[in-house]
Amino acid sequence: MRIGMLTGGGDCPGLNAVIRAVVHRADAAGDEVIGFRDGWRGPLKGASRPLHIADVAGILARGGTILGSSRTNPYAQGEGGADAVRATMAAQGVDALVAIGGEDTLGAAARLAAEGVRVVGVPKTIDNDLAATDYTFGFDTAVHIATEAVDRLRTTAESHRRALVCEVMGRHAGWIALHAGMAGGANAIIVPERPFTVGRVCDWVHSCFRNEYAPVIVVSEGAVPDGGGELIAAGGTDAFGHRRLGGVGTWLADEIERETGAESRAVVLGHIQRGGTPTAYDRVLATRFGVQAVAALHDGESGVMVALRGTDIVRVSLDEATAELKTVPTARLDEAEVFFG
Length: 341
Ligand code: F6P
Description:
By secondary structure, the protein is of the alpha/beta class. It contains 11 helices and 13 strands. A 7-stranded mixed sheet has the order 3-2-1-4-5-12-13, sandwiched between helices. Helix 5 packs across helix 6 (175-183). The protein is elongated and about 65 Å long.
């Protein structure tokens, strides 16, 4: 079998571990692998390179993706959709694809599979918001980075008796904020799933200072003030129609300072959460996903995604995986709120 592989959407730590695993598993079975460049742009335009064991030596712990990534949507105007992908596959003798991506990349994969392209998906995103898998790789690394930031903000907040707001990624799901906030003992965690009021946040800030403690607040970029809307950063929309979010942390810090009189600062972690070496957990998960994606192709599967359920890697339909986002349940937010203030 000749397998084509691509990494699409926002990058995340662990992509190279999947690439390495796919090449090793395929090589062991006598398959060939080619890597398509820059997400769906590769299969649409034919940009690819062969991938042998030597090409993936030493990349397990490296962040980013040796294949490059993009938010190219094969179904956007003028991109050519399934016909263009099929034409490249035929020209390059590719039998099946391994698509490594999040909701957008895998949503396109689901559509291509429905149109007869043989494709297996691998779930990646630091946001951990893909349905049908307990975890995506990249999330654990992002949480570690954000937790370390919260720990560091804590000591400087204490020294100056300031309120510090830490804005983390998470467009529609607050998983990073929830986990990093809980791990770092945040005094408030604000996520897109639960609209917030400045008044409530200021109550927590006051109670913190009353307890001789300086508040650290973790907020997802997609969090919305009650009755308001998302804060949009400059820039347009991507090929999947997403606007660039950002600014809620700074806005909230200003509001806290205005309402409470306490000096406040905001820090935006941004792409630091996506860069650098993956944690051991993410390396292992990514490696298992890569091995099992090739195994799925060998079993004749298409239109499925490998997924983590408990400690097992299972196969779920791409349709199920991309039908809706996995957001933070109310019960998890209630648990976290016990520690606010
Ligand atoms: O989808 C992953 C993600 O990291 C989101 O959390 C964030 O909103 C977005 O990507 C940022 O995308 P970009 O790299 O295009 O700025």
